[in-house]
């Protein structure tokens, strides 16, 4: 029986959005059980997801974590759709709608040293529509997925965490879960907090995972994460059930750090037992 496999798709591109491949990892069970369907995890910065395939040892090793957790019976293994970022990463990953909230655009322009332009907004909007309206339907057509929102999740780190959270809020009927590692809150500051206050889905059918370290870029995240955690509690989200928020003192903003703890969000999102 064949084991896990990686497949690459190069035909999922649209005019105006930087071209990229989409990599799909299939767990061992996919070919071993041809009648079984699987949940799906969409991961941002997909070039960092599978070390031996594209990243020469510096990746998240998500596939290894999933295989181990599944072998131990701790999770239902998902199909992983890895979406590489491009030279326009910053603009594609910025949440366009959140820019319109008080403090959003001003904070971004101060942090980046540039202006938020209509072209950048279009890149942001194109990326989210591309993932939801083209990539996801293609994955559901080409693979044995569970296409419902209960079985569709997102994951990302840094700005990839921001866009994962944004997609989760903009399309709660599509995505029920998101894991945001080392979420880069300072890029929008209070603008993102205000956006979340109005756009978080109702608790109960959705799950969110957050974490951060204390070194490098992560040293600025704790106060912002505390605000987000407080907002979730105010809206009735239950810690450990609807959301999880972890701190890793001494850890920094690197793929190595994320790879060493990626089993935690995977267990929270896809666990076969209560977290």
The helix count comes to 11
Provide the succession of SSEs. Answer: EEHEHHEHHHEHEHEHEHH
- Can you count the beta strands? 8
Largest sheet geometry: 8 strands, mixed
Which CATH architecture? 3-Layer(aba) Sandwich
Q: Residue share in helices?
A: 25-40%
Look at the structure and name the CATH superfamily: Alpha/Beta hydrolase fold, catalytic domain
Oligomer designation: single chain
Average pLDDT score: 93
Q: Kindly report the CATH topology.
A: Rossmann fold
Measured between the Cα atoms of the first and last residue, the distance is 32 Å
* CA radius of gyration: 18 Å
Strand content: 15-25%
> What's the CATH class, please?
Alpha Beta
Number of domains: 1
Overview of the molecule:
It contains eleven helices and eight strands. The chain has 275 residues and is of the alpha/beta class. It has a single domain, classed as Rossmann fold, CATH 3.40.50.1820. Strand 6, helix 8 and strand 7 form a beta-alpha-beta unit. The two termini are 32 Å apart.
Task: Give the helix/strand layout.
Elements: E1 5-9, E2 22-26, H1 28-32, E3 40-44, H2 51-55, H3 62-71, E4 79-83, H4 89-93, H5 104-112, H6 118-142, E5 152-157, H7 159-170, E6 177-181, H8 190-199, E7 207-212, H9 222-234, E8 243-247, H10 255-261, H11 263-270
Parallel strand pairs: 3-4, 3-5, 5-6, 6-7, 7-8
Antiparallel strand pairs: 1-2, 2-4
